Amino acid sequence: MIDVPQSVWRDTIDTFRTCGNGRRECIHYWVGPTADSGQLSRAVHPVHSSTPRHYEVDGAWLTRFWVELALGGESVRVQVHTHGKLAGHSPTDDSGALVYQRGFLSLVIPWFAMRDDPRVGAYLAVLDEDGQWEEVALEDQLRWN
Amino acid sequence: MGQAFTIRVTYNGVIKELQVQPEEDVQAVLERAIKLFSIQQQPHQMGLFTEANVQVAGRPADNSAEIHQSVEKAGLQPDQLLILRQAVVQGGGV
């Protein structure tokens, strides 16, 4: 179970709404101490391009981010991104994720996060031991504080 | 045959060491790094990058030919830190 601090959730949704503006996808990474897999300390908004149906993270930014995490003893626990309509895990989501280690979580927020409670209709997937993305219930993996 | 040396590889906040041979193909180094971190992704999606974001192994983001060169030719040095990551990180609804 991963605890989601209010600050992390608020930062994520605020940025989805301003960056995506109800028209484009957006992506965040939830980061916590490597030594404590249940704790999140911050939300990171990567440099990325986006359209109504696609996002791509800047490669140079990602290289710098990987070094920053290593030096700071932090790891990404969850990737969170928006879809314009219903949430799900598309083939592009399946093959283009940030991390491919068992237990990594991918949370997809529908309607560009513009609805009152963005969690309604959200889709959560976990990478299983065979490298496949499997849908799981939010309440089984994430706990909002 | 040159002398083996150790490089460091980082993936999602963790650094691990890997011993390499100067004449070893960087693609083989990439595949060993993927196993070292128990990564469940196809090797052709992954790459090794220097801290200056120069890709030294794997298939580039433009999907051109996989990089094949020796560790020595790639200029890798003892204790050098390499970044193991997806060549392209993307997503999107359909």
List keywords for this structure.
heterodimer, A: 145 residues, alpha+beta, 6-stranded mixed beta sheet, two-stranded parallel sheet, 4 helices, 26% helix, globular, B: 94 residues, mainly beta, 5-stranded mixed beta sheet, 6 strands
Walk me through this protein's architecture.
The complex is a heterodimer of chains A (145) and B (94). In chain A, strand 6, helix 3 and strand 7 form a beta-alpha-beta unit. Chain A is globular, with a radius of gyration of 14 Å. Chain A is of the alpha+beta class and 145 residues long. Chain A has 4 helices and 10 strands, in the order E-H-E-E-E-E-H-E-H-E-E-E-H-E. The longest helix of chain A has 15 residues, at 6-20. Helices cover 26% and strands 32% of the residues of chain A. The mean pLDDT of chain A is 96. Chain A has helices at residues 6-20, 59-72, 91-95, 138-141; strands at 2-4, 27-33, 42-44, 48-51, 54-57, 74-82, 105-109, 123-127, 133-136, 142-144. Chain B has a 5-stranded mixed beta sheet with strand order 2-1-5-3-4, with helices on one face. Chain B is globular, with a radius of gyration of 13 Å. The N and C termini of chain B lie far apart (52 Å). With 94 residues, chain B is mostly beta strands. In chain B, 12% of the residues lie in helices and 32% in strands. At the A-B interface, strand 5, helix 2, strand 6 and helix 3 of A face strand 5 and strand 6 of B. Strand 5 (54-57) of chain A pairs antiparallel with strand 6 of chain B, so a sheet runs across the interface.
